[in-house]
Design brief:
Length: 256
């Protein structure tokens, strides 16, 4: 767990132990858990397992109910109920009151696909949404936990923490030169950058494409958004890249 990012990094099929506490400790409540994409432009897309991990010959799918196979998140509670609504999958668990002498209810969760799987989550950031519900499905509480399922949790944790702290010096004792962060004057194009010196290329290119299929066009826009958003984090040039990111994001929303 990264304290700096408030985010869990975990291996696939490893159990994530969590403790749940609510006040007042009413009886008969349910906990619903759903994995969603963190970024707004993917929020409506369901989180699903990739083709390889959902295959029936996969070891993790042996002796598993077919209704559970598509779920990325599973709960170790024996009375877990798995549901699907328009492709969005969740698992609900009946919450008993804490045992005498305890203030919380422990639950374990496992993940059966990775964020890096290209035919599944496709490197998109994810988070768990926990909702406290009555038996009539009235939501009375909500919490969110950022999660990344990966092969090397420590490596990915260290990498994301470094990126969140801004660019780091590549050579001890020497500062890395950063590109300008100010917006170009009205009617002027940004100054050209030199990628060989570590600066990002700020020259503008007008591209007109005709793409067959709405899903294909949206995928290309999503890639462009992720590309620029990632560069803004790596270089610290968000102010200068923000207008382009916002324009792409608007085009994505206009297609929905």
């Amino acid at each position: 767990f990264s304290q700096a990012l408030s985010k869990v990094f975990i291996n696939m099929e490893q159990t994530l132990p969590l403790r749940f506490k609510w006040n007042p400790p009413l009886h008969g409540l349910w906990l619903r858990t759903m994995m969603v994409f963190s970024m707004d432009q993917y929020r409506s897309d369901p989180v699903q397992r990739c083709h390889n991990h959902i295959a029936t010959n996969s070891v993790s799918n042996q002796n598993v109910d077919e209704r559970i196979l598509r779920h990325v998140v599973r709960c170790t509670h024996p009375d877990s109920i798995y549901e699907e609504n328009n492709g969005h999958m969740s698992v609900s668990v009946p919450l008993s009151t804490p045992q005498p002498g305890s203030l919380y209810v422990p639950l374990g969760f496992q993940f059966f696909c990775k964020n890096s799987c290209s035919s599944g989550m496709n490197r998109r950031c994810t988070e768990l949404v926990f909702t406290l519900e009555t038996a009539q499905r009235q939501v009375i509480g909500r919490r969110i936990l950022k999660v990344r399922v990966c092969s090397c949790p420590k490596r990915d944790k260290d990498k994301e923490e470094q990126e969140s702290n801004g660019p780091v010096n590549l050579i001890p004792g020497k500062k890395r030169k950063l590109p300008g962060l100010s917006h170009p004057p009205p009617g002027k194009k940004p100054l050209s950058g030199n990628s060989s010196t570590g600066q990002h290329d700020t020259r503008e290119y007008n591209i007109t494409l005709k793409i067959p299929g709405k899903d294909n066009a949206r995928a290309i826009l999503n890639y462009a958004f992720d590309r620029l958003a990632g560069e803004s984090l790596r270089t610290g040039a968000f102010p200068s890249l923000s207008p382009y990111i916002e324009e792409i994001n608007k085009k994505i929303h206009d297609m929905k």
